[in-house]
Design a protein that fits this description.
The protein is built from four helices and six strands. The chain is α/β, with parallel strands linked by helices and about 180 residues long. It has a single domain, classed as Isochorismatase-like (Rossmann fold). A six-stranded parallel sheet has the order 3-2-1-4-5-6. The chain is globular, with a radius of gyration of 15 Å.
Amino acid sequence: MKTALLIVDVQNDFCPGGALPTPQGDRVVPVINKLMDKFDLVIASRDWHPEDTIHFNRWPVHCVKESHGADFPADLKKEKIIQIFEKGTGSKDDGYSAFEATNKNLGGYLKEKEVDELYILGLTAEYCVKSTVLDALKYGFKTLVIKDAVEGLRQNEDDFENAFDEMKNAGAIIITSDDING
């Protein structure tokens, strides 16, 4: 079975001090760095919004392409990331799921690399992580969510926990980083 690690939207604007911060978004970075060495294929998604997107009608301006906020945090081991999938790149799309990437087709890429098992972590549980997990399941991947490497906006604590329930009920396996051997 071939595995891949997908880092969802771990970007400066989603970390403390960013434009749309998760309260503890930066705490996932050390866990991600530790896990990257356990996978041959490490990929990432990122919001890459234009300044005029309708997405900003709902959310504060964040992750504008080519901005500091759209960058990965400085302490994330970016050199381990083989491919980046950019989403939310159009003025009329939200781009919650990494499977909505516009620069490269994530589902096709994973099939081409013969990936069977997809491990997902990142920011945020209630939106982009959940959307990506649900799409991964639709594509037929065995999908594992690494809960201690996922953070949320936590606008409502129930929404954060409900996101994990929804992913699990759809068929995802919820694990922790300690469950991964290698």
